[in-house]
Design goal:
CATH superfamily of chain B: Immunoglobulins
Largest sheet of chain B: 6 strands, mixed
Strand content of chain B: over 45%
Shape of chain B: globular
CATH class of chain B: Mainly Beta
Largest sheet of chain A: 7 strands, mixed
Oligomer: heterodimer
Largest interface: A-B, 27 and 22 residues
CATH superfamily of chain A: Immunoglobulins
Number of strands of chain B: 11
Number of domains of chain B: 1
CATH topology of chain A: Immunoglobulin-like
Structural class of chain B: mainly beta
CATH topology of chain B: Immunoglobulin-like
CATH architecture of chain A: Sandwich
CATH class of chain A: Mainly Beta
Number of helices of chain A: 0
Chain lengths: ~110, ~110
């Protein structure tokens, strides 16, 4: 079975802190994604990566950056956390470019105070 | 970009009842998946179904790609079926999953 693991289930950070959310997948998938989920707004794509060191902006990249130094790991970085980044963050991975199934991690509920 | 609409937004059922959830999308897709989000927030894969019909126990799904919709059927619902059901599609033009707004299901004992 594919496993996508996010480093934390719950996280509380202070405004202005630099925050790292880590995601690791164990099935050699090429594509990895970060989404955030907010009530009433659904799931929105922040960034995705289709190869090591490659990244593309999603719908809401402002205030975030990403890093993919190894194929299995995709990190989401909040350079200076703000209260409006309090949200549920979900990481996903997909094997190929098209026509393949996506798998999600367990989610990280981030609170910025 | 592609639009994905799910209906109904909310659904309350008595245990044992059947239901149909619908997902409409505005453009051709390579990929369509149904997920169930559990109370802890994790998205659980239900079906990978870009076309055709699949069944898994009490759940089944049908996608009619030419008419741009998919249906998720839940039969003999149980309280553990409660949660939010999402449809997500990957447009032909790209490889990003776009989610619908979800259907929030509550099954009462």
């Amino acid at each position: 079975d594919v496993k996508v693991t996010q480093s934390s289930r719950y996280l509380v950070k202070r405004t202005g802190e630099k925050v790292f959310l880590e995601c690791v997948q164990d099935m050699d998938h090429e594509n990895m994604f970060w989404y955030r989920q907010d009530p009433g707004l659904g799931l929105r794509l922040i960034y995705f990566s289709y190869d090591v060191k490659m990244k593309e902006k999603g719908d809401i990249p402002e205030g975030y950056s990403v890093s993919r130094e190894k194929k299995e790991r995709f990190s989401l970085i909040l350079e200076s956390a703000s209260t409006n980044q309090t949200s549920m963050y979900l990481c996903a991975s997909i094997y190929g470019r098209m026509n393949t199934e996506a798998f999600f991690g367990q989610g990280t509920r981030l609170t910025v105070v | 970009g592609i639009q994905v609409e799910q209906s109904p937004p909310d659904l309350i059922l008595q245990e044992g009842a059947n239901s149909t959830l619908r997902c409409n999308f505005s453009d051709s897709v390579n990929n369509l998946q149904w997920f169930h989000q559990n109370p802890w927030g994790q998205l659980i894969n239900l079906f990978y179904i870009p076309s055709g019909t699949k069944q898994n126990g009490r759940l089944s799904a049908t996608t009619v790609a030419t008419e741009r919709y998919s249906l998720l059927y839940i039969s003999s619902s149980q309280t553990t079926d409660s949660g939010v059901y999402f449809c997500a599609v990957e447009p032909n033009a790209g490889n990003m999953l776009t989610f619908g707004g979800g259907t929030r299901l509550m099954v009462k004992p």
